[in-house]
Design goal:
The protein is an alpha+beta fold. It has helices at 49-66, 74-96, 142-148, 154-157, 198-201, 206-215, 218-233, 253-265, and strands spanning 5-13, 22-28, 36-44, 101-102, 104-110, 114-120, 124-129, 132-136, 180-184, 191-196, 240-248. It contains eight helices and eleven strands. Strands 2, 3, 4, 5, 6 and 9 form a six-stranded antiparallel β-sheet that branches. The chain has a five-stranded antiparallel β-sheet with strand order 1-11-10-7-8. α1 (49-66) runs antiparallel to α2 and α6 packs antiparallel against α7 (218-233).
Length: 266
Amino acid sequence: MSQYKIEAGTGQHIGDRQEQQDRTALFAAPHAPGYVMAIVADGMGGKSGGALAAEQVVRTAKQLFDEFYPGNDVRNLLENIVNEAHTVIKLSGVSSEKEPHSTFVALVITPKQEAIWAHVGDSRLYRFDGPNYGEKTKDHSYVEKLVDEGKISAEEAKTHRLSNILVNVLGSSTTAPYITFGEHSALKAHDSFLLCSDGLWHYFEDAELSAAVAANSPRQASEFLIRKARDRASGRGDNCTFAIVKLVEPPAQAKTYTVQKMRRAV
C-alpha cells in the first residue's frame, strides 16, 4: 500500500509572446484507480498552429488515459499517445496550411509506487528526492547533439544561438518522432516531479528547481517559479508552462486516534 498521498498542480504564463502555445494538464484514470498522469506540450508553428498542436497532444492523452485499465502497459499507453497525436497533427497541418509541431513530456504514477515517463523534444521532466536533485530528461535538441559529440560544453549549450532548434518533435512531415522513456520505482513520501517547457527550465539551475518544489506546496511553488522566470527573462520570456507532482506523507489518522483514545481512558 502506498505510504504517501499525491499533491499536484500546474502553472502557466504567456511570457512576452503574443499567444500561449503551451498546454498542460493533470488526469486521473477513470477505470484505473491510483493511476495519475501529468503532461506538458510546447506547441510550435506560428499562426496558432503551435497552440493547436499542443492542444491535440493533451486531448489525445486524455482520450487514451480514459480508456486505460489496470493491467495495461503504461509504456504502450505513452507510445500510443505520441503516435496518435503525431498523426493528427500532421493531418491538421495539411488541411490548415500551417506547420504545427509540439513537444511532449508525460508522467504516470501507478499504485505500485512506480513512476513511468516519456518525452519527445525539449520539454523536460525533473525528478527530485526531497530537496535534492535526482535526474532529468535529456533534450532532443541540436545543441544537446553537439554536447554529445564533444563539440561544445553543457555550459556553452545554455546560451548557444541555436539552442531552440529541435531534432525530434510531433507533427514533422518528414520523420516520425522517437520516444525516450524513463522510470523510477519504490516511490516514497517527499519524492517529487516537475514537468516543464523551456520557458521555465531555461532560467533555473537544477538545485534551484528542487529546492523550490521541496519547500512549497505545488501552488506556492508555481507562483514562485513564474515570478522568478519573469524577472530573469527581462522582457524576452517565452511561454512558461509546468506541472508539479509531489508525494507527501498521508495524514496520521491512526496516530491521532490512539492519542485521543488514551486521553479518554485517563
